[in-house]
Structure formats: structure tokens, C-alpha cells
Amino acid sequence: MQALLPQPPEAVKKRRRATKKPYSRSIVGASLEVIQKKRAEKPEVRDAAREAALREIKERIKKTKDEKKAKKAEVTKSQKAQTKGAVQKGSKGPKLGGGGGKR
């Protein structure tokens, strides 16, 4: 049997604290004041604003859908009126001829 050799202890990795930047920058499309104002808002206020925005978007979508439906109904109505007005012609009769195949 082999003699058990003492193993060296595993090196514990030192934890590194992430450096915090002392300043906050504005993001494209929103100024720093706007960002800070939104951050300072209470969660209830933020939720209420979000709900209102979502409701407004849904209403806008519904409105466009209703407009499309109305337009489609109008188009189908006009097409039906056109087909009713036109009198259908009678069939021409049987076509004669041998089919014109190879000789």
C-alpha cells in the first residue's frame, strides 16, 4: 500500500467587490432627470401609470380593428350589390370538336 501523502489545501479564490461608479449617466432617449424622477416614484404610482398606458394601447388596437371590420363590411356590401345588378348570361352550349389531339 502506498503511504497517504498530505494534500495541499485548495486555494480559496478571493472575492472581488464590483466597483461602483460614483455617477449615473443618462440613457439614449431619456435624460438623467427623467430617470431619477421615475426611480423616486412609489411602486403603486408606477404600476398605475403602466396600467393606464397598457389600457390606452389596447383601446387604440381595438379602434383600428373596428375600423378595419367596418371597411371590410362596406367592401363586401358593395361587391354584393354589384353582383346582384349584373344579369348572368346563359351558357354558350356544348363545345364541339374532336379535342384536337395528335394524328
The percentage helix is 40-55%
Q: Pick out the low-confidence regions.
A: none
Given helix and strand content, the structural type is mainly alpha
The radius of gyration computed from the alpha-carbon positions, rounded to a whole number of angstroms, is 39 Å
Instruction: Tell me the number of strands.
Output: 0
Distinctive features:
2 helices, mainly alpha, 103 residues, single chain
In short:
The protein is mostly helical.
Describe the protein.
With about 100 residues, the chain is mainly α. It has a domain at about 30-80. Helices cover about 50% and strands about 0% of the residues. The protein has 2 helices and no strands. It has helices spanning about 30-40, 45-85. The longest helix has about 45 residues, at about 45-85. It is elongated, with a radius of gyration of 39 Å. InterPro entries: Ribosomal_eL24. Keywords: Ribonucleoprotein, Ribosomal protein. It comes from Zea mays. This is 60S ribosomal protein L24-2.
List the topology elements:
Layout: H1 32-40, H2 43-85
Keywords: Ribonucleoprotein, Ribosomal protein
InterPro entries: Ribosomal_eL24
Protein name: 60S ribosomal protein L24-2
